[in-house]
Amino acid sequence: MDPAVRTWREASRSLQALAAIALVGHTDEVTAQRTAVDRLRPRRPIEGHAALLLPHGDDGSVDWDSFGALLSSTLTAGLVPAVNMDTGFTQLLDDATRRKVLEVTAGIAGSDFVAGAFVPDTAGDAFDPDAYLRALGEVTAAGGVPVVFPSHGLNALDPDDWVAAHRRFGDESDAYLAFELGDMFVDYGRIYPLDTYADLLEIGSCIGAKHSSLSRQAEWDRLALRDDRRGDFLVLTGNDLAIDMVCWGSDYLLGLATFAPDAFARRDAYWAEGDDRFFELNDVLQALGAFAFRSPVPAYRHDAAMFLALRGVIAHDDVPAGCPRRGDADRAVLATFAERLRQLL
Question: What is the DSSP string of 53-84?
Answer without folding.
Answer: ---B-TTSSB-HHHHHHHHHHHHHHTPEEEES
